[in-house]
Amino acid sequence: MAQIGGELAAKRPNLSFSGPDAGEDRLSALPEDILVLILLRLDTISEAARTCVLSHRWRRIWTLLPKLTFNLAPDYRHIPEVLAAPEARSLSSIFVVNQYDAPSSVAAWLPLAARRLSGDLVLRILGVGPEDDEEVVDAVIPLPCFGNATRIHLALGFLALSLPSSGAFTRLTELCLMSVLFLGSCELGDVVSSPRCPRLRNLRVCGSVGLARLDVQSESLLKIDLRHLRLQKININAPALKKLILVSCFGRNRPVAVISAPQLVSLRWRNAYDPNYVQLVNLGQLQRLNTYFVLGSKQHYGIHNRDILQLLHRFQGIRTLHIALSYRKKIQNFQDLMEDRKVLPNVVFLKMFVFNGPHSFGACSFNVLRLCAGIRGLSLFFQTSRHWEAESACPSGCSCDQPTNWKTEELSLNGLQEVKITGLRGAEHEVIFLKLLFNWAVALEKLRVTFDYSISQSKAKELCQKLSCFFKPETCMQFYIYENSDRRSAHLLSLEDEGTGV
């Protein structure tokens, strides 16, 4: 504290004035709480600390701030002395962003933060050190027990982290761990379960390594979000859990998963599903399911799709279904999807994400629609993966549209009232599919189309003319075009002067 105060005091300006009010410091006469509010408007702790040069009273005001923000150097080097200040009060927020730093440096100030924090901790390390740095490989950041913290968000750039073997996070409601290398004897499941995190509501772990097992026994958790891990075994027993997200969580070997969540409403499952190893028990309240099919030439894709069909039929009561159709460059006939005749009778809203590149998606989409023929709302998102950007046509002999009899089969979508389409490019197979879709949906009331950002306004109007021929006059149609390539905003396309009647 003396260091940072001394640095700034040495730069103190001469504040002498002439005139009748010379020497009168009206700002410093304000109540202490008001001065603290003024300093809270500054961006970082360094800017707040600079006010100590104004007068003797201002020397301690910045140490009373309930929120500390350290944003890159030179702020970062002052963290230990600021947290150790004897005048310091409890803190409602500590926000730290820095480029790569040695684990020992982070470990030096975390215990100080744990003693003072009664609110949120956000620590983001933006980069890792060189791979041959022994300190990166061998040193570990020991996470202290934050007994009064309410939210902890750590993104460590794959620095190693060890979890505390004792102590309770009694007030913690949200824990987020990203790009973490887990080391040490204490397992994450021990920390986040009810005995040590009795109030934890949200748990998120993403893009981390070293986590082979996760055993969560929690009475309080409402949401669990796990993505891009290499788990071999997961066990979740969470009677209050409402939402569960599992995306690319398991290693290549057959993982073992046992999940019990009687109040679960929403499940996002983007993993392989083998009912011999995955037990989803006591999920009777499930209303929303999110999963995916893969259309490719390898045998295991067919096995995956058959297993996902079992997953879908496992939950006959779901009301909302989100399905991704992920096409590979080379595909083979997906007969398993074509032959499945079971339905999900209670689905009323279907959202499909189509990653098809140049492939025709109609055959597979037809079978998903047949699976959910009772829907009232449909959203279609046409999306392009990076590996498709250079592709303009299907490989020779591609079977993406086989068998073609889906175009002549009957399908009744009599309850479908509203359709939203995003990313339409106007390819021939898209137009063919939409024409058939609108024939199946005889009671369609509303259509909203947002064209792909690559479509020009003139091309969009041409497509509008073509699509408008497929509808009844009473159908309400809206067409949108993106304003730029960032796809953040779109404006309504005016067609009145084109004579479409839209």
Shape: globular
- Overall pLDDT confidence: 82
Structural class: alpha/beta
Number of helices: 13
Give the end-to-end Cα distance, rounded to a whole number of Å.
68 Å
Largest sheet properties: 17 strands, mixed
Detail the poorly predicted runs: 6-19, 129-136, 497-502
Q: Report the oligomer.
A: single chain
Q: Report the radius of gyration as a whole number of Å.
A: 29 Å
Domain F-box: 27-66
InterPro entries: F-box-like_dom_sf, F-box_dom, FBL15-like
Pfam families: F-box
Protein name: F-box domain-containing protein
Describe the model.
It contains 13 helices and 24 strands. The protein is of the alpha/beta class and 502 residues long. The chain has a domain at 287-387 and 398-502. The longest helix has 16 residues, at 299-314.
Features:
502 residues; alpha/beta; 17-stranded mixed β-sheet; four-stranded parallel β-sheet; 13 helices; globular; disordered C terminus; F-box-like_dom_sf; F-box domain-containing protein; F-box_dom
Quick structural summary:
This protein is an alpha/beta fold and 502 residues long. The protein has helices spanning 2-9, 32-40, 45-49, 58-61, 79-83, 103-116, 134-138, 188-192, 299-314, 335-339, 362-371, 428-440, 457-468; strands at 67-71, 91-98, 117-125, 141-142, 151-155, 160-162, 174-178, 181-182, 202-206, 213-217, 223-227, 233-237, 243-247, 256-260, 266-270, 278-281, 288-295, 320-327, 349-355, 377-382, 418-424, 446-451, 476-482, 490-492.
